[in-house]
UniProtKB/TrEMBL annotation:
Isopropylmalate dehydrogenase-like domain span: 4-360
Family listed: Belongs to the isocitrate and isopropylmalate dehydrogenases family. LeuB type 1 subfamily.
Catalysed reactions, semicolon-separated: (2R,3S)-3-isopropylmalate + NAD(+) = 4-methyl-2-oxopentanoate + CO2 + NADH
Source species: Hyphomicrobium sulfonivorans
Localization terms from the record: Cytoplasm
Name this protein carries in UniProt: 3-isopropylmalate dehydrogenase
Length: 367
């Protein structure tokens, strides 16, 4: 099969980690497992420097036509004072909005070789493999009214609004149940129906959507605050957690810490399935930012970006077997003792970005 990929390396370490993804794409192309046609473009500060915007219409057009967008990272001190509308992050926000990427998938996987780097005890995290499905385009971060007003008595009042509609909840619930069917067949839906009307509707709609996934997929409702506690008490009880934008932001960062470094964490953001083509818009990116403190030095851990490409194989290219191989290669180099600075442990072999990428490639060739 042939897939069109748009690579948007962006700024800082995004540029360095994307080079390692390109080497892996080359490997898959040469091995005849698939044909990836890649295009690249600028985003973030790099696009601002060249064009005065955080992403051009031409780059957006390429993104609309691609099977998957692989995104590095944007931002840095160089662009601290650029106008708000064209700040580097605006490039990512426009991609999410224009591609309609409403489902944010954040896996929390603990590679056995890194279990001691976790914030939690080894026995709690060894073998951990959970997926947080966060609603990304609605909820309290985006709804109006959103303002700070000064009252007659001089006091200020800040307002944020949370709104969720049936269709918004339905589509994120379906995404979570579909995913669970390919994993451990268990979904926890986290909300706070005890104190929020959006929580009441969330629970109601998720329950309704679940009817067409029962009995093979199991559904449990959990209050979001209890979910936060359970994630540190016994994270392995979870398979898929589906939740709204705000709770998802917090819970996914919490789950991430069970797995070790920011340099290890991939993510995917998915849009609706197009009824005509069966395809869905998708963007894959590491969770970390542009890391200005280490940018340009060849020190960045490329695993988060490489694993993000692995998610693209799985969710946009129907290449689950190859995604598994890539995961095995990553686990293999970690087991062999290769470590970038961010995950360095005593007695291990410290390497830079290119060496880590090269080691993963070598491991892949052996599998
Ligand atoms: P950051 O994720 O860039 O860095 C936080 C710390 O983690 C730094 O010490 C960095 O060196 C380290 N780190 C991150 N990724 C690493 C990797 N792959 N390998 C080794 N070490 C790694 O977050 P920070 O410092 O808050 O933000 C820096 C810039 O990135 C800012 O301009 C921020 O706005 C932007 N940013 C962009 C994001 C994106 O493109 N999606 C997300 C988060 C921040
Ligand atoms: Mg966050």
């Amino acid at each position: 099969a042939t897939f069109n990929l748009l690579l948007l390396p962006g700024d800082g370490i995004g540029v360095e980690t994307m080079v390692e993804v390109e080497r892996i794409i080359d490997f898959f192309n040469r091995s005849g497992r698939a044909t990836f046609n890649t295009q690249s473009d600028l985003v973030g500060g790099a696009a601002y420097d060249a064009h005065g915007v955080a992403i051009t219409d031409a780059a957006m057009d390429k993104a609309q036509k691609a099977d998957a967008v692989i995104f590095g990272s944007v931002g840095g001190p160089k662009w601290a004072d650029v106008p708000y509308a064209v700040r580097p992050e605006a490039g990512l926000l426009r991609l999410r909005k224009d591609l309609g990427l409403f489902a944010n998938l954040r896996p929390a996987i603990c590679y056995p070789a890194l279990a001691d780097a976790s914030s939690l005890k080894r026995e709690l995290v060894e073998g951990l493999d959970i997926m947080i499905v966060r609603e990304l385009t609605g909820g309290v971060y985006f709804c109006e009214p959103k303002e700070i007003v000064t009252l007659e008595n001089g006091e200020k009042r800040a307002i944020d609004t949370q709104i969720y509609t049936t269709s918004e909840i339905e589509r994120i619930a379906k995404a979570a149940f579909d995913l669970a069917r390919k994993r451990g067949n268990k979904v926890h839906s986290a909300e706070k129906h005890n104190v929020m009307r959006t929580g009441v509707l969330w629970k109601e709609v998720v329950t309704e959507v679940h009817r067409s996934y029962a009995p093979d997929v199991q559904l449990e409702h959990i209050l979001a605050d209890n979910c936060a506690m359970q994630l540190v008490r016994n994270p392995k009880q979870f398979d898929v957690i589906v939740t709204d934008n705000l709770f998802g932001d917090v819970l996914s960062d919490e789950a991430a810490m069970a797995t070790g470094s920011l340099g290890m964490l991939p993510s995917a953001s998915l849009g609706a399935v197009d009824a005509a083509t069966g395809k869905r818009k998708a963007l894959y990116e590491p969770v970390h930012g542009s890391a200005p403190d280490i940018a340009g030095k060849g020190l960045a851990n490329p695993i988060a970006t490489i694993a993000s490409f692995g998610m693209a194989l799985r969710y946009s290219c129907d290449m689950g077997a190859e995604a598994d191989l890539l995961d095995q290669a990553i686990a293999g180099v970690l087991a062999a003792g290769y470590r970038t600075g961010d995950i360095m442990q005593s007695g291990m072999k410290q390497v830079g970005t290119a060496e880590m990428g090269g080691a993963i490639l070598d491991e892949l060739k052996k599998l």
